[in-house]
Design brief:
Elements: H1 14-26, H2 32-47, H3 51-86, H4 92-118, H5 131-134, H6 136-150, H7 154-164, H8 166-174, H9 177-197, H10 200-217, H11 221-234, H12 238-254, H13 256-265, H14 273-296, H15 301-319, H16 321-336, H17 338-360, H18 365-383, H19 385-420, H20 423-464
Pfam families: DUF445
Biased composition (Low complexity): 28-50
InterPro entries: DUF445
Amino acid sequence: MDSTKPEEMDRTKPEEERAVGQLARSGASATPATEQAAAAMSSRAMTSFSPADEEKRRGVRRMKGTATGLLLFVALVYVLAKWAQNSGAGPWSGYVAAAAEAGMVGALADWFAVTALFRHPLGLPIPHTAIIPTKKDQLGVSLGEFVGENFLSEEVVRQRLRAVGISSRLGAWLADPEHADRVTAELATALRGALTVLRDSDVQAVVGEAITRRADAQEIAPGMGKMLEKVVADGGHRRIVDLICIRAHDWLVLNDEQIMDAIQGGAPGWTPRFVDKKVGERVYKELLRFVTEMRDAPAHPARGALDRFLADFAGDLQSDTDTRARVERLKGEVLGRGEVQDLIASAWTAVRSMIVSAAEDERSELRLRVRASLLSLGARMATESKTQAKVDRWVEGAAVHIVTTYRKEITSLITDTVASWDAEHTTRKIEANIGRDLQFIRINGTVVGSLAGLLIYTVSRILGA
């Protein structure tokens, strides 16, 4: 009989709960402190007893009492049967005594076997007893190997995932507008959280470095030349020339006096002033006439010269070594300016603000497009066999990769956890969960032993007769 009193239920320390909870929420690598807290909580899970465990322990004690009572009963029957046999009560007493004797043997043998699982019978250090407390770590290793070989093998994982039909189920779930709205909202929340966690200075530095490195590695002159060549060939530059001519004409008209004064101011000091004035007026009129004709005549020679210049420049950008080198030097100077770097860095702030605003707005184009994409994906996954096969292969491949890559870590979780448990309390908890069924072995041993003894005695009497 087990006279050990139930241990008081240990209470988990708040500090350890917070440490382990924070680790689980963050997904970060375990620190020594959190590992110790997790190990302590796991150990207490085996040393403490929940109300359900206490109820099971009471059930075990009741079954132990029943099995022991049955043993005492057959022992009493044996004593009375032997007394009756010695008193000449008749042949029946021998049959009863044989059955009771065999029942006692079966009960004692099964008591020894059941007790040997959890402790040394009668406290005697008999070999191969107290199996669970002495072989706890080995059992943990064997359990880990069993799980790894039979549950974490590639074939088992693939078969199980195929039987589940993840793609079709997930597709049917996503095709529901309510579920698509929920996923969209969760993705928006996750996106906002990720953007909030990121530091602007870090992202700006990364973006600036990436853009600068990309610009340095890529020569821009050939691309600019091809673009300019296409613009000139399509006549796309003519509108710009028209605008320049119009603005130049308007500027000349509005600033005629300033222009003539500037021309006169550049004349030699020995020329008469009226000559300078006549020359200034003449130069201004010719300049105004030239700009006006260029504005009004699409076929003006100056326009043709400009077309040829742009075409030649486009060719030089693509093939002339000196021109391309000058463009690269200019590019480096522009990128090196602080104003440009500040502009590149500030682009992240604008982009983040735009994304956060779109994520918060339920009617934004971003969220509407994500929702529509989820609904479309769900419909395809629910109905199209090709999409289902593709998703299933991806899920199976990912699961198999995780299982095959981290199988040792997964099984070590079992072995390490079992190794961290206290042997005595682990034994008590296991006994609380399976001990009631084991007591039926003692009862069955008593009954089966009695029947076997009765049969053997009967057969021997028949053969002896």
